[in-house]
Amino acid sequence: MTDRYLDPHQARQRTPTTYEDLLGDAIERAFAAGVHDLAGLVERLNDSGLASPSGKAWTEAIYREEMATLGA
What we know:
Elements: H1 18-32, H2 38-48, H3 60-71
Helix pairs in contact: 1-2
Domain Recombinase-like: 1-72
InterPro entries: HTH_62 (IPR046789)
Protein name: Recombinase-like domain-containing protein
């Protein structure tokens, strides 16, 4: 029997999309590089080549909106 409190995906409703996987990877790389502020994270996302959902450059507002959408 699996302990539900040790399941890292217990709240997952579906498998992540390729875009969500790539976004998560880019965010993890930024954190691993010591970036822990929103401005730095947005800069790293733009440097990564991963486009925002609108295809525009990442901004703090676009990042916040995307996180709210993905977290809903």
